[in-house]
Design goal:
heterodimer; A: about 140 residues; alpha+beta; ATP Synthase, domain 1; 2 domains; eight-stranded mixed β-sheet; 2 helices; about 25% helix; B: about 280 residues; alpha/beta; five-stranded mixed β-sheet; 6 helices; about 15% strand
């Protein structure tokens, strides 16, 4: 029985992580889920949110902005639309962006062209904040 | 022989042109480095995503999916997405893409329509008969992800509403700074990757069809993103190469003109000397 498995996090912009980890908690579209070594082959859609992994007994937190997670043969591949380690996140900025975007959204009707963009800002800022609230 | 003054002026002009081409080359080289990284990263991501789709290729709900299943139209209406640059001075970059697109359009005749990216392609096609369904310019100015999203939505809508039956992407594939290859790829219907030997039996969440439903449009989006990244890197590569040879040509030209200038100067001096000697001779006479 394996005690660790490989976690790879890839985004279109960068290969963020390729490391042996003991445990991962990720934001699935149907709710948060955990992955331990020898997990069954698994494919899921990810929601924007925080991803936590443990490697060498240390907890690491990232914000991810949606994507997919595949688990197979003790390799978990996260194909994220975007991802940021919590160390790179400026919580105050995220909060400010979230407030701005929400304020703008409130003043627009649903068909306005900027709505989709603003919704993404809201999602991303929320994911960033979720990650920073987990700082250890 | 041109006058000394004219040649001097010419040299100054060539020299300042050379300064511009040299600067452009340096800028292109810097941008190329960044664009190249993006291409490599994007390829890794695309590769992974393709792997996931390959594992699902045997699933009937993928094979029969509306974005995958080929249409059986008698003469399919074809959309070509042409990726050009906004700016010129990048060698044969735009010309070779446009040439390829002309060949493609000529083969499809009136069944063809276009989506054009980049001002160069748009300027070329706006005066021509082939209808343009959408165009995107100022690609370098807007955030890339926004253009990719807009293009993906547009492509999926055109395809979904059966405005067109097939969509192809024409872009310049980045090999190296010296080599970019115009490539045509089918975007929609998605070419289901070859089935893998022993596809994995996944557990799906929320469920298989929901995952596939989510995955396929994303696959299209990533393909468009990748094509754009390749095209941008190619553009910078082509510009760097073109500006490098322009700089070299300017050096050659300056060298030749300098030679000519010295010769002209020598001739003037000789002439003046002769006149002085001639004058002195005459006085003594």
């Amino acid at each position: 029985m394996a005690t660790s498995f490989r976690l790879r996090i890839v985004t279109p912009a960068r290969q963020l992580l390729d490391e042996d980890v003991e445990e991962v908690t990720a934001p699935g579209a149907a709710g948060e889920f955990g992955v331990l070594p020898d997990h069954i082959a698994f494919l899921t859609v990810l929601a924007p949110g925080r991803l936590i992994y443990k490697s060498g007994g240390k907890r690491h937190v990232l914000a991810i902005f949606g994507g997919y997670a595949e688990v197979a043969d003790n390799v978990m591949t996260v194909l994220a639309d975007g991802a940021e380690p919590v160390e790179e996140i400026d919580a105050q900025r995220a909060e400010r962006e979230l407030r701005d975007a929400e304020a703008k959204l409130a003043g627009l009707d649903a068909a306005a062209p900027d709505v989709a963009l603003l919704r993404r800002v809201v999602e991303q800022s929320t994911a960033r904040l979720a990650a920073t609230s987990e700082r250890v | 022989m041109a006058s000394l003054k004219a040649i001097r002026k010419r040299i100054t002009s060539v020299r300042s042109t050379q300064q511009i081409t040299k600067a452009m080359k340096m800028v292109a080289a810097a941008k190329l480095r960044r664009a190249q990284d993006a291409v490599v990263q994007g390829r890794a991501f695309g590769e992974k995503l393709r792997e996931v789709v390959s594992n699902l290729a045997a699933e009937p709900s993928l094979r029969e999916h509306r974005l995958v299943k080929p249409r059986t139209a008698e003469s399919p209406r074809v959309l070509l997405v042409v990726l050009t640059a906004d700016r010129g001075l990048c060698g044969a970059f735009n010309a070779s893409i446009i040439r390829q697109s002309e060949v493609f359009v000529a083969r499809q005749r009136e069944n063809a329509s276009l989506v054009v990216v980049g001002r160069k392609g748009f300027d070329y096609y706006k005066k021509r008969a082939t209808p343009i369904r959408s165009h995107y310019v100022n690609v370098g100015v807007l955030p890339l992800s926004e253009i990719v999203r807009a293009m993906t939505t547009r492509a999926l809508t055109l395809f979904g509403d059966e405005e067109v039956d097939e969509i192809y992407l024409l872009y310049s594939q980045f090999r190296s700074a010296l080599s970019q290859v115009a490539t045509i790829e089918r975007l929609l219907p998605i070419e289901a990757p070859a089935e893998v030997e022993n596809p994995r039996e996944y557990l799906f969440e929320p469920d298989r069809d929901a995952v596939i439903e989510n995955l396929l449009p994303r696959y299209v989006e990533v393909k468009i993103l990748q094509a754009l990244l390749e095209s941008i890197a190619s553009e910078h590569g082509a510009r760097m190469t073109a500006m490098d040879s322009a700089t070299k040509n300017a050096s050659d030209m300056i060298e030749r003109l300098t030679l000519e200038m010295n010769r002209a100067r020598q001739a003037t001096i000789t002439k003046e000397l002769m006149e002085i000697v001639g004058g002195a001779e005459a006085l003594r006479g």
